[in-house]
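Hi,

I'm pasting everything inline rather than attaching a file, because the server keeps stripping attachments. The sequence lines come first, and each chain or strand is labelled.
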Amino acid sequence: MSLSSSADAPALARRQRWLSVLAKAPAARLAALWDGLGSVPAYALLRRPETGLVMVKGRLSGSGAPFCAGEMTATRAAVRLESGEVGIGYVGGRSACHAEIAAAIDALGQRSDWRDRLEAQIVAPLEAEADARRRAIAARAAATKVDFFTVAREANS
Amino acid sequence: MYVAVKGGETAIAHSLDLLADKRRGDRAIAELSLEQIDQQLGLAVDRVMTEGSCYDRSLAALAIKQARGDLIEAIFLLRAYRTTLPRFGDSLPLDTSAMVAERRISSTFKDVPGGQVLGPTYDYTHRLLDFSLAAAGDRPAAPTAPADTNRSLPRVGDILEREGMLEPPPRDGASEDLTRRPLTLPASRPVRLQNLARGDEGFLLALGYSTQRGYGNNHPFVGEIRYGHVPVGFVPEELGFAIEIAEIDVTECDMVNQFAGSHDVPPQFTRGYGLAFGHSERKAMSMALVDRALRAEELSESATSPAQDEEFVLAHSDNVEASGFVQHLKLPHYVDFQSELVVVRALRAEVEARRRQAVLDQAAE
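And the predicted assembly:
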């Protein structure tokens, strides 16, 4: 937990939120928003995008001891800007481009001259879209909500 | 013993070509895309991911296309592919109470907090063939209703557990990993659940059914089934803090079973648990029934039925192993069989010689 000293807490929370939003976004949508930024500072790949597996854990009865539920594919990448910031991307699935863009945004987000622009043009829109998707799922499910009535026989009938 | 044979290279190459040709079928018919399989045969994708034990929709769709719809073959393909990938690590345990649920039902409690949400289910269809699907056409979008997305969905089991009516699940225990260490018996409950999660749906369905019919009955009720999207948390080693790397679809079944009590614990209901990738209700329910059946010894029940026999269940649940061992019988066993032929010929000759000798002896008397 090297990065979790209390002075870094807000920066850490922001990175955590950004990396989660970027990973859960559809890869094609993220790429479109990234391209929409126009020219961005050059970066070098510290770790070329690599696909591997993450063992997904469940819990006994949902709340008990953990067990191995099955694996999922994931892709990771690491980049370094010429100004020195290192960005890390970890995304579910096998898209090299998705992981690399996430890492590049993570690196750029550590620069104050880019942070607000990335928040406004990429992270906030992706977050709003994810929220809209969640609402759409919940709204369709809500239409199938039922009340079951138990039909009890009266005592003397 | 299997002895290797050589030869047949050309025939095998041509067989592969013929297989590819059959896979494509009539060239006048449009070819299936992976997106079509993912979107329109989604439950097949879910099963292949669950039993292939690898969550990746497009890989599962590819496996189904390559296997021409043979799901057990597709599961084999996915299992083989996963062995080529490095392991980044373990996720944080899923929190299914944070699920964006598409479906959530309880068959034990009518008025569960959060309500009974049917979602997309075949339960209330009439199982009549719908001939309108034989033609392509626009389908109307599903109706919507106002929903509260900010609430988490409490698990029915947790509510009953707080009342002391339901046994709490064991909280600790190192979770071993069957893909790293082979199965040893007796197995811990986490290892049993991993085995069942990868296990063949048909096999577990039949075993679960057998418990209902009396072979190890434990009076199950569906405490809750939920299906929906949950985030997967992961701590990358380079970061040292948790991020969410994806949202995946899972089905969870918490089965409430016959109560037990002892000197120390007043009577309470017992539980079985099922968890599967995608929307795989039959699988999650069967898994929960078999999980509970395998707890017979722990709960001091007499274990007399197949579903309660840990070795029998865990050693035969994997359809990749089962299908490999059954289907290897098709490979040439010429040398094997030749040696058995020699033995049987010799035995027969011996029997014949003894018979002749007996006739001669009889004649001599």
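The mean pLDDT of chain B is 93.

If the labels don't parse on your end, tell me and I'll reformat.
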